[in-house]
Specification:
The protein is mainly α. It is built from 11 helices and no strands.
């Protein structure tokens, strides 16, 4: 905790990520836990390499374990510190995929003359991560906060940009006393248009990615193996098995990496 107190001013962004990931940990506690986990992981890594080096009687492994320990510690610490960022990004994607449908349900409730509180209660189920956000608002209202205060707190602690924009507009309408139907309808239409644009953009981006996949996963390996076979025929030497295994491992790794990249770029639209 003492080391965490000294490092706390260096990571102001992580404090925001902790708030938006809905964790109960303070920044100092998160840094302290990250340091503890990193020390444990680094110790296990060094101990494992030392034992392996002792069994194999390899001085290189013994030196490698000691030399690599600072780099392992830094990587583990970085990964542990910025884990809340990954959680907030995942939370934002989950909310964005359900938000327009939850807001449309909210709009139908408002148009039917249902009070805002009851309309919010109605969308606390059936819309995944978005419904969870409405649950937080209802809990804050039931805890004694006003509707505007509960919505303001929800905006601050939410990682989704679409959610924050939508509820800022809704909050402004509430503060000015205007009808909520028109702002909600505009919000829903704007989010749906944004999703359609993201789908079109994604389709355009797939063309160069497909070309790159064909180049590295199909054309280059097939032509490369063919060239090596022809070359081995002239030189009288065979193709080493390790080279074929290496190509196979590269293709497997490349395809997994390619699928992850495509998945990460896919727009968050519920079908």
């Amino acid at each position: 905790m003492n080391y965490a107190s000294k490092l706390e001013p260096s990571f102001p962004q992580i404090k925001i990520d902790l708030l938006q990931s809905r964790t109960d940990l303070s920044l100092k506690e998160h840094i302290a836990i990250s340091i503890y986990q990193s020390v444990n992981t680094t110790t296990m890594f060094v101990a494992g390499i030392l034992i392996l080096g002792y069994i194999l009687d390899s001085t290189t492994l013994l030196l490698l374990s000691v030399a690599a320990s600072p780099f392992v510690f830094i990587m583990m610490l970085y990964s542990a510190l910025y884990r809340p960022k990954i959680l907030t990004l995942k939370r934002a994607r989950d909310i964005d995929s359900e938000l327009p449908y939850a807001l449309r349900h909210l709009l139908i409730q408002i148009k039917s003359g249902v009070p805002l509180y009851q309309a919010l209660v109605a969308v606390t189920q059936g819309y995944g991560a978005a419904s969870k956000e409405f649950e937080y608002i209802i809990k804050d209202i039931n805890g004694g906060k006003s509707q505007t205060e509960a919505i303001e707190d929800s905006i601050v602690s939410n990682p989704s940009l679409s959610y924050r924009r939508s509820f800022w507009q809704l909050l402004n309408a509430m503060k000015t006393g205007t009808d909520l139907e028109r702002p909600l309808e505009n919000i829903v239409n704007e989010i749906l248009k944004t999703q359609l644009l993201s789908i079109k953009k994604y389709g355009q981006e797939l063309n160069p990615w497909t070309l790159m996949y064909m180049m590295f996963a199909v054309i280059m390996p097939s032509l490369g193996i063919t060239f090596m076979m022809i070359l081995s025929t002239f030189t009288g030497t065979g193709i080493p098995d390790i080279m074929l295994v290496g190509i196979l491992i590269f293709l497997g790794f490349f395809q997994m990496m390619f699928m992850n990249i495509i998945k990460s770029k896919r727009p968050v639209v519920k079908i």
